[in-house]
Amino acid sequence: MRVLLLGGTAEAGRIAAALAAAGIPAVYSYAGRTAAPKPQPLPTRVGGFGGADGLADFLAAGGFSHLVDATHPFAAEISRNAVAAAGRAGVDLLAYERPAWTAGPGDDWTAVPNLAAAAAVLATGGTVFLAIGRQGLDAFAGLAGRRWLLRLVDPVERPPLENAAVVVDRGPFTVEGDRALMRAHGVTLVVAKNAGGAAAEAKLVAARDLGIPVVMVERPVLPARTVVATVGDLMARLGHPRAPGDAERGV
């Protein structure tokens, strides 16, 4: 057995720890979008593969038996490539997929299919907390008459959008911290991707507490694949049913 783990999430870090503890030969792959990725207890590579064909070639050349996709729920391109590459290389694919968030009592959510649709429903004026990371900000670049609050993992020389305040921080976040952040910047609307996970949920609870509406971007549709919802389930499918530290939080 040899596993290629497509990571970049908190869950991927726990999967890496479980693989290392079980003594399963594995390689952790980062996409390379973060300047300082977290160290992992596995050999690590950084960068793309050159599409589905490049990933298939990498799997075959490396003698991998399994491909584990633990990327962000909105990393649709690599997830689609993983399905195609696993089929071409003849390796087993397992996808870790955290449960999506659902609106509850007191939430004021507007569901939209993508970022372009989110930009289309924004009213003029106010301060919009774009809690979507750096990828996808171009969808909002042409909108005037608004202020923006951006929370990014890496510092930037200049804000990617005009009239934007940038906060550099890395989750997990707290409800108290996100309430204070929204109050300090006068946030009137939150735009979020439905990534799921507890570590990034604080902004939604804070928005509910403050009576701030949320535009929720739904997840992209992906090809059929074998999905697991816990690290324990993943390790069991790899023949190692006991996964140390099987906590289910993520960013």
Give a description of the structure:
This protein has 251 residues and is α/β, with parallel strands linked by helices. The chain is 28% helix and 22% strand. It has seven helices and twelve strands. The protein has helices at residues 10-22, 51-61, 76-89, 115-120, 175-185, 202-210, 231-237; strands at residues 3-6, 26-30, 44-46, 66-69, 92-96, 109-112, 127-131, 147-152, 164-168, 187-193, 214-217, 227-228. A six-stranded parallel sheet has the order 3-2-1-4-5-12, sandwiched between helices. The protein has a six-stranded parallel sheet with strand order 6-11-10-7-8-9. The longest helix is centred in the first third of the chain and has 14 residues, at 76-89. It is elongated, with a radius of gyration of 19 Å. It starts with a strand and ends in a 14-residue tail after the last helix. Mean pLDDT is 92; it is low at 243-251.
Would you report the number of β strands?
12
Q: Look at the structure and give the mean pLDDT.
A: 92
SS-derived structural category:
alpha/beta
- Helix amount: 25-40%
Rg, Cα atoms, Å: 19 Å
The unreliable regions are 243-251
Terminal CA distance reads 28 Å
Order of helices and strands: EHEEHEHEEHEEEHEHEEH
Please describe the biggest sheet, giving its number of strands, its sense, and whether it closes into a barrel.
6 strands, parallel
- Enumerate the strands of the largest sheet in spatial order, edge to edge or round the barrel: 3-2-1-4-5-12
Q: Based on Cα principal axes, name the global outline.
A: elongated
Instruction: Count up the helices.
Output: 7
Beta content comes to: 15-25%
